[in-house]
Amino acid sequence: MKIKDLEFEKFIREDEIKAKISALAEMIDLDYNSKTPVFLPILNGSFMFGADLLKQVSIPCKVSFVKISSYVGTVSSGQIKTLIGLDESLFNQDIIIVEDIIDTGQTLQKIVTELKSLGTKSVEVISLLRKKTAREKGIAVKYLGFEIETEFVVGYGLDYDGLGRNLKDLYKTDSENIFNPDSSV
Ligand code: IMP
Ligand code: MG
Questions:
Q1: Three-state SS for 27?
Q2: R_g over Cα of the chain
Q3: Which ligand is nearest the CA of 48, by number?
Q4: How is domain 2-68+81-176 classified at the CATH fold level?
Q5: For the chain, which ranges sit under pLDDT 70?
Q6: Which helix (H) or strand (E) holds 170?
Q7: Is the CB of 93 under 6 A from ligand 1?
Q8: How is the chain split into domains, by residue range?
């Protein structure tokens, strides 16, 4: 299947994703048995994963979709990323960040640091995918769907230059050095 200039092949089917999500939701139901966690799916990439996951979770919980804004700040470090869209206080709450994919782990690290600074009770992460790059850096993910190599993937919420988010299955391309301007969120 072609998206813009790249050829993609089917990688992980919708039914495999659904089965994985059911298993992960069961683990969350057990671990958060007597709690009321707040799920924070990170837009845009996690909109499908977040929705499907939450349909399978049966404990009482809250959901707040958030986005990461990046802007050039006045400090010397340059790019600053911050969470936007938080519609309730997270103070003393058990947070579960819902990510689509972790590559370098940079995005996640920033989010976790920011959430901890808000006085949250606990912060855990569920991610549909984790690339080898993040695994090698020891990025901790409590609930993980699939470990993959370094291939670039689209579909099921993930995009290539804004395209492909609507696909039901996950596709991959082995092309190296993909510049994906829309991929940070
Ligand atoms: P990280 O900060 O390098 O871990 O990048 C994480 C973000 O980059 C993810 O939340 C995605 O939005 C995007 N991203 C990383 N790899 C891919 C990919 O293979 N396909 C689509 N988006 C990706
Ligand atoms: Mg993302």
A1: helix
A2: 16
A3: 2
A4: Rossmann fold (3.40.50)
A5: 70-80, 176-177, 179-185
A6: strand 170-173
A7: no
A8: 2-68+81-176
